[in-house]
Every structure is written in C-alpha cells, then in structure tokens.
Amino acid sequence: MNATAPHPLADDAALRHCRRLVRRQALKAAGVSALPVAGVDLFVNAHLLKSTIDEISSVHGLAPQQIAALPPALRTRVDDLAAEVGSYLIGRVVTQQVLFGAVRALGVRLSAQQAAKLAPVAGLAASAALSGWMFKRLCDRHIEQCRRVQAALPRLAGPQHEVIDLQPGLHH
Predict the structure, then answer these.
(1) pLDDT > 70 fraction of the chain, expressed in percent and rounded
(2) pLDDT value at 40 more than 70
(3) 14-38 confidence digits (pLDDT tens)
(4) Residues of 55-74 as b/e, b for ≥16 C-beta within 10 angstroms?
C-alpha cells in the first residue's frame, strides 16, 4: 500500500471518529448552554468548539502544523482548496475571531441564543437546543470541508489517527 494514499477503511474510521466526537461535544455544548449563567456558556462552548475543530482538522491532516510541514506548492494548493470550499477553519489557528466568522457563515446570530436565556425554563431549553444545533452544524460542515480538501489532494497523508486491526492474522 502506498504510504501517502489513505486506506479506505481508515477514511471510514476517521469519519466515524469525527462524527462521534461531534455528537459528544455538541451534547456537552447544549448542556452548558442550559445553565442559567449568562456568558459562561460562550466561554466553555468556544473552548469545546476549538478543541473539536482542532481534532477534526488533525484527523484529516489539515491542522496548521501539518500543513506547515507540507511542500510549499502543496501548502498553497491546500489554502486555495480551503478558500474554494468556503472554509474559515482549515489550516488556521482557531481563535475567537475565526470561530465567530465561521458561526456568521452559518447565518445564525449568537444574540438570539443569549436572548433566549432571559426567558424562564423554556428559554434555557431553547438556548441549549440552539447551541447544540449550531455546534453540530458547524462541526459537520468542517468535517465535510476537510473531506473535500483531502479528496482533492491525493498526495496528502491520510487520517492522522491509528486504526486498530481487531483481527490480526486474518488478512486476505
């Protein structure tokens, strides 16, 4: 097997890993947003989002340090492809400004989520649902953008996590 071409099973495993991570983190984001303390959810959810986006990028070989290690022509191609797919997050260090830019790309206003917290329990539930949905939507979008960029770069290394062979010795 060519060391630079991703193994199809590894690609499927990477997708499952990322989707499972996003579901778990989105539930945490929703839970934090249900807390009646204004502002805490933004801080915690921004941290959760940053770590999740970083993990997704890394799994796809598109973290800033991974891209920096590529040859210059390939780095330029990654940048061009990231712009082409409309990614605010591929190959960038995730900062608060970058996250807000990505959220704005979803067309969702954070103020609506914060305003929902002013209502009683129903407002907290609405805020939690909106936060979880935004988190999942943003991360799912990032997964798709990473996959599109990775697919367009056949020389880009495959997923950057280990795939465990559960049945060693049963290779055909």
Answers:
(1) 63
(2) yes
(3) 899 999 999 999 989 888 877 777 6
(4) bbbbbbbbbeebbeebeeee
Q: What residue type is assigned to position 101 of the chain?
A: G
Tens-place pLDDT, residues 57-90:
999 989 999 999 988 988 898 988 988 888 867 8
Alpha-carbon distance values, 43 to 70, 102, 113 (Å): 33, 16, 14
* SS3 at position 158: coil
Tell me: pLDDT of 3 over 80. no
Q: How far apart are alpha carbons 171 and 105 in whole angstroms?
A: 45
Q: Tell me how far apart the alpha carbons of residues 116 and 130 are, in angstroms, rounded to a whole number.
A: 9
Distance CA 60, CA 7 (A): 13
Residue 21 near residue 52 (C-beta atoms within 8 A): yes
The distance from CA 10 to its chain's CA centroid, rounded to whole angstroms, is: 18
Measured CA distances, 141 to 39, 133, 167 (Å): 25, 12, 33
Q: Kindly state the DSSP code that residue 6 receives in the 8-state scheme.
A: P
